[in-house]
Amino acid sequence: NMENLQQTSRNLLVCDQSSLRHRKCRLSQQVQQHHFNHQVSLLLPECGSAPPPLDAALRSFSSSYLLRKLPLHELLDTHFLQDAVYQGSVYGLSYRSRIDEDTCVALLPSGQLVLSLDKDVYERLGVEGKPSRFNQRANSRYVVTVNLTDSSMAPGGRGYQRLLTGLKSRVQLQTDFLLSHHPGGGEALKALLSRYDWTEHRPQVSSRLLTNLPCPTPLTSDLPSCDPHSFLEWLGAVEAEVSCDNESTSFLSTLVCPEPRAVLSRALRVRVSGLLLPQDVYRLIEELRRCWDGRGTASWAALTVQGFADSPVSWGSREHGFLKGGENFYSLLLCSDHSYWLCMGTGAHDGCPP
Amino acid sequence: MRAVGGEQEPAAFERTVLRNASPYHYLKVYLQLESATTRLCAVELKQLIVSGLSSLFGEVGAALPFDLLKYDEEALTGILRVHSRGLVKLWSSLTLLGSYQNEACAFRVLQVSPFLLALSGNSRDL
């Protein structure tokens, strides 16, 4: 059937157009809820180097710690609960395990522990969960969510004992695990780090100066002049270093920058990668805003934040899956008059962004 | 939803939800060749893919428009763009393409997304 051949899996793009000064502005929550980010990229037009405070914000993303072969029952260790989970926000994610085939684990700042398991492991674990939203027909994957800050999950409690026995003796799950803590950093994780093989992962920062960059115009508060998908395609081309310098009749590529367009003589792209905390992302946005305050210049900046494809959650505790790409990201176009345009994109196995 | 702007509210709040509206899909592909010394230029790579489309879907298939947005001749990796309704055809012909000038070859599809932005980083490589 030729009709079926033309169909693709679901994708969703949610765009908010507002201002940081608007009473309904939820940007802070939207950023904070996207827990597991692996890449942040900032595009600054007509700029050769980032202003010092902004540069400092880009270079001060928190480190994360990679623990090798961590038995998952260690996440229920009383010292770890007291020093890390009950204090501040802990971010943990299984490293290099694939959500479409392996066990994936996330520890959220809310204290929720999310285990995405295949049917076999789930049944052996013996803790109640739910079938994954995304393969209900096969029921081959289950999600177990427990809140470690709940009273029933306090050490010694019934729920706690059940999960501990499950992880310790029934399935003995272990995984490489990325951990980060806000605001405690490595200090809050000390007890756990002292017992396992670990390495510190400092976020990698790289920048690139782009010249003669075609750009849709105008990028102002009523913006942008083109539709969201065209704008994101252009931004994606800048990020992936794809040339838009083509003709509609070119053999290799017909990709062009949306009209109307202008050419930026230069633009700076700074990219940070690692396990990046939402707090640090929001601090960067605040810093951008501060850089413009007091200066009357009309300008904009584009910030793209990409989530881990194999995280069991995307925004908040919304279940996330892979299917074809596992994409979950947002792009923020922020203008110097505080107006912004936030585009949140997801693939097929994802809930609606907040 | 639109709020009327005033002194306190400098702009409106507007939300747009676009479902399955991406006009294109993007694929990051790697061409695996039997011999490590074989090299293809961008034009040859595009012609190879067109030949794959035509052998699977005939003349109509060969006319399926797609773009080779970027190509790294050394690494033999590239980014393709295709209209969303052509994705399945392009992907299936890449899968079934098995030879280049009598040499065995295979396309590995590394990443697929309705968003080009998603191809600028892969958390599986972190």
TrEMBL record, chain A:
GO cellular component: multimeric ribonuclease P complex; ribonuclease MRP complex
GO BP field: endonucleolytic cleavage in ITS1 to separate SSU-rRNA from 5.8S rRNA and LSU-rRNA from tricistronic rRNA transcript (SSU-rRNA, 5.8S rRNA, LSU-rRNA); tRNA 5'-leader removal
InterPro entries hit by this protein: RNase_P_Rpp40
GO terms assigned for molecular function: ribonuclease MRP activity; ribonuclease P activity
Database matches in Pfam families: Ribonuc_P_40
Annotated protein name in UniProt: Ribonuclease P/MRP 40 subunit
From TrEMBL, chain B:
GO molecular function annotations of the record: ribonuclease P RNA binding
Record-stated family: Belongs to the eukaryotic/archaeal RNase P protein component 2 family.
Nucleotide-binding keyword on record: no
The organism's place on the tree of life at top rank: Eukaryota
GO biological process: tRNA 5'-leader removal
CC annotations in GO: multimeric ribonuclease P complex; nucleolus
Lineage: Eukaryota, Metazoa, Chordata, Craniata, Vertebrata
The protein, known as: Uncharacterized protein
Coiled coil spans: none
